[in-house]
Amino acid sequence: MTADFGIWSLVPPLVVIVLAILTKRSMEPLVLGCVVGYLMIDYRQFPDNILQSLIKTMQDESLVWVILVCGMYGALIHLMIQSGGALAFGNYMLRYIKTRRNSLLAAWVMGIIIFIDDYLNALVVGATMRKITDHFKVPRELLAYVVNSTSAPVCVLIPLSTWSIYIGKLIEDQKIVEKGQGFYGFVKTIPYNFYAWFAVIGVVLVIYGVIPIMRRMKKAVYRAEETGVLAPQGSEELSQTHEIPADIEKSKPAYFFIPLIVLIAATIALDIDALKGVFVAVLFTIIYYWVIKVLPYNHLFESIFEGFKSMLFALAILIVSYILKNIGDEMGMTQYVIESLQGVVSKAYLPALVFLSLGAIAFATGSSWGIYAIAIPMVVPVAIALDANVWITLGAVISAGTLGAHACFYSDATILTATGTECNNIEHAFTQLPYALMAAGLALVCYLAVGVWGG
Predict the structure, then answer these.
(1) Does the pLDDT value for residue 2 go beyond 80?
(2) DSSP 147-206
(3) How many whole angstroms separate alpha carbon 247 and alpha carbon 343?
(4) Which pLDDT belongs to residue 298?
(5) How far apart are CA 175 and CA 148, in angstroms?
(6) How far from the centroid of its chain's Cα atoms is residue 164's Cα?
(7) If DSSP codes are grouped into helix, strand and coil, which group holds residue 349?
(8) How many angstroms separate the CA atoms of 73 and 107, rounded?
(9) Does the N-terminal peptide bond of residue 47 adopt cis geometry, omega within 30 degrees of 0?
(10) CA gyration radius for the chain?
(11) Measured over all CA atoms, what is the biggest interatomic distance in the chain, rounded to whole angstroms?
(12) Do 20 and 410 form a contact (C-beta atoms < 8 A)?
């Protein structure tokens, strides 16, 4: 049951953010934020209420889906690493990539090519490009920034993605497009997904030096170049690196890109379903490696479990972040913010205020799809009532969720990017934050402009 805590509903996520900044950790602040939240909801029911929330969360079909997808992605990546295919692919690419700048541009291009799903993007691009950027002493924080900026932001700019399918269905449910036309409704929002555009384009500007390397990122660059230490302290918790038993001399890039092609093709063919796609890809890869004798039969199945295990820390953080989202729902945080806008906002300023308020919630909770599920049904009637441009307003909602996925310290995109690049997620979030805020500021200006002059 949803309670009305008003402005006090903002306390639990603020506790998490402050503690994360002070401790430079993610798990402990999340747990403490959840404890504070359930003490506020009903201290007499504590700890039963937080344990019941955990049980409910673990029974949530969407979380089970995330656990299976991430675990299988981890298994597939581990198989490709164990086969020597990822290493061989990296060595092959190094024949053509001769500079530090080109290594980062290659990561950016690969991030755009793998647009099907942000989880797939973050894990595969990070794991693939590590060897190449390591060769040029690129700090993992900089690689993580490039990877994260081409995961969720790219998924909301290209309509053939898991994000487009989900958002398109929510748009269709609002009856602002005909039944079965959710895809075309999503396409109409793409020009107005300003945050995503600035996030993706900003990477190229950083790579070419148009946007300077910011202070904290500059320290990471100096550390990597002067000491050779590429990953920040604490990154070992997210490490996927293991001894490779395959004969490296005989390994081929095909051992990497053939399973990857099957993964992308299967995901597209099976209704853009990431779970079905990765299941088919893992099954294919086991058979493929067994037939060509890349790995012993028993080692293939051991690799699946090892790959799944490599995702456990990331999944633990995601589970606790889901509980934090449940707290926000129980305290009525999103409803409070949206209802606060009604009656005090004009047509001209609606997109900007929607982006600003929902972006703050998404950043505080790490939620994006959850924000969409709650906010879109509430924002669309407001836009219609004010005679505002619905597509611009929806673009603001989508951008807000993208900001949360991209910039939050403990969002799924941030955690999986940190896992793929083997970079401490808090250091990744801090070094990336100035660029995310820059993109958010530019997006806010654009929403003000189109609201006042073009809405």
Answers:
(1) no
(2) HHHTSHHHHTTSSSSHHHHHHHHHHHHTTSS-TT-HHHHHHHHGGG-HHHHHHHHHHHHH
(3) 68
(4) 78
(5) 33
(6) 15
(7) coil
(8) 19
(9) yes
(10) 22
(11) 68
(12) yes
**CA–CA dist 34, 137 (Å, integer):** 39
350-376 average pLDDT score: 86
Q: DSSP string covering 206-245, please?
A: HHTTSSPPPHHHHHHHHHHHHH---S-TTGGGG-------
CB atoms within 10 A of CB 63: 17
Task: Summarize pLDDT for 220-277 with one digit per residue, the tens.
Answer: 999 999 998 998 887 766 665 555 555 556 778 899 889 989 998 998 889 888 889 9
* Cα–Cα distance for residue pair 277/269, rounded to 1 Å: 8
Place of tokens 């690799």: 303
Q: Tokens standing for 239?
A: 């490490």
Residue 62 carries which side chain, given as an amino acid letter? S
Q: Which of 55, 233, 211 is nearest to 141 (CA)?
A: 233
Residue 413: HSE in the Cβ half-sphere, 13 Å Cα cutoff: 32
Residue 453, judged by CB atoms within 10 A of its CB (0-12, 13-18, 19+), counts as: exposed
Rounded CA-CA distance 127/6 in Å is 43
Kindly tell me if the per-residue pLDDT of 352 is higher than 80: yes
Residue 438 and residue 211: Cα distance in Å, rounded? 10
Closest CA to 72 of 414, 308, 425: 308
Residue that has been written with the tokens 């079905």 in this structure: 276
Q: Which two tokens stand for residue 87?
A: 């290493």
Sign of CA dihedral 455, 202, 235, 307: positive
Among all chains, which residue has been given the structure tokens 């990336």?
A: 432
